[in-house]
Each structure stands twice: as structure tokens, then as C-alpha cells.
Amino acid sequence: MGSYHAGSLAVQELVGVRERAEHVGRSLGQDIKPVAAAFLELQPLLVVGAADPGTRRVWASALTGTPGFVRATGPRQMSVTTDAGPADPLTAALKTPGTHLGTIALDPRTRRRMRLNGRLRPTARGFAVQADQVFSNCPRYIQRRQSYATSADRTPGSPRRLTGLGPVEQEFIRSADTFFLATVHGAGADASHRGGNPGFVKVTSPRELTWPDYPGNAMFRTLGNLRTDPRAGLLLLDWESGDTLQLTGEAHTEFAADGVRSVRFTLLEARSTPAAVPLRWSAPEYSPANPGS
């Protein structure tokens, strides 16, 4: 399949980076190279993004396990030996053959990230993904966290379903230095990372957020997806307590005359889950690439 679809191409043309994007796009492939396979096997966290087959709403979810729970089981196949749990909004999607799935493995220790997108096949112990695209991104905007511990006695609480953000959720968002963003297009799904100093995500109302779109690799995969399909899912994670906040809704990019870009997200539904993730990471060292650092 081609490197970019019409939405990404349109944004690249609008911003004036089409030639650079074509060069960067050569890094996209279907094969999981040995260095990527080795990276996957060290990760305790995988973020996945997809559309729920029933509601068609897009969500991002966190999957965790002992390193090795995510691994390459073929040159173009990744296997995951866990599930999202019965209360997660992507549980049905992860059991549906042919689901378009976007995944991202991000390691705060090394500030490396790897993305793999493809079609899902359920397995006896979880699922496998047949890769359509495999690629890495630069370390910009990733906060370094030197180490993590697994809290074996941490039990996830019951998720609260919300249609608006209360004071607690709003503060959770304002204090975030990282979130994950799931988007879709006609032939696939994607999961990406957004980072910045705390406060880079603004809560403008109980049902609306906005964040800056910092300069990246010129691919505009996420903004390209949103140009053709505004459905989006956000995952915010408390890296110490393991609390998660999952949001689903629609997102639209705003292009200012001076070239500054921002994304405005309108909430349809949220799920707040205490202690959802058993990992407790060390305090962050903010990326020197973050504006304001």
C-alpha cells in the first residue's frame, strides 16, 4: 500500500512539506526488522487504537504485561498475549477478526517509539496483527522516565463513564505531559503520541479540549486521518498511580495564518479508571524539545 492516503497528502500540500514527506515516507515498510523486534520484547506497555465495532466510536487503550507479552512472531506479524479487560471500550474490537488496529510502543527510558498498524486476528491468548505499516519516530516531545516498577497488588477500579469532564478530570488533563491519540481512515487505524510540558493540553469547557500541533516528521498521518474522518480517541495516563482517562469524540485541525496549528477535540464520552495500569514510573525529565523548556 502507498505511504500516504489522500488526507495526509492534502495536509502536506497545505503546509508545504510534500517533498520532505515523500523522503520521510521511504522509512515506512511492512517488515518488522530485528532491531524493532528486539525493542518490542522489552516493553511492558502497548497502546492500541481502533473503532468499536458496535458504536463506531474510536478509542485508545493501554495494554500491559511482563516484557515479552508483545513480540514479533513473523517478519510481518506482531503477537500480543493479553487483552484489554472486560470493561475496556476496545474489548470487542480486539476480539473481532479484521479489525483495523493502530499500535504504538513507547519506551520512556530510551525515548524511543515504534508504531505498527495492520489488521487484527484473535488468538487463544490475545491477538496478532498482520502489519501494513511499521515505522519509528524521533524522540522529540517524549519525556524521559528512567525506570518503572510493577505493582503486583494494584487492582483496577471500576471505570466511571462520563459525558462531561468534572474538576478532577480537568485537572488530570491539565497536569498531563503525555497523551496518546487514536485516529482512523478508510483503510486503517493509527495510534500516535503527543507530548509537551504540563499545561500543553487546554480544557476550554467540560466537553472541549485543545492542544498545539508541534512540528514533527512532516508525515501528517494523524492530521491526515482527521481531515478525512474526525473520529478520535485519547488516552491519558498517570505514570505513577496507573489511573487512566480515555476520551472519545471528534477532532478538527485549525490552521492559523502564521502557520501555527492546533487541534480542537469535542468529547462524546469519557471513561476514568483508577489504577488501570500496574506500572509505576519514575518522575519525568521533560524533553528539551518541548516549547518553553
From TrEMBL:
<protein>
    <submittedName>
        <fullName>Pyridoxamine 5'-phosphate oxidase family protein</fullName>
    </submittedName>
</protein>
<feature type="domain" description="Pyridoxamine 5'-phosphate oxidase N-terminal">
    <location>
        <begin position="170"/>
        <end position="254"/>
    </location>
</feature>
<dbReference type="InterPro" id="IPR011576">
    <property type="entry name" value="Pyridox_Oxase_N"/>
</dbReference>
<dbReference type="InterPro" id="IPR012349">
    <property type="entry name" value="Split_barrel_FMN-bd"/>
</dbReference>
<dbReference type="Pfam" id="PF01243">
    <property type="entry name" value="PNPOx_N"/>
</dbReference>
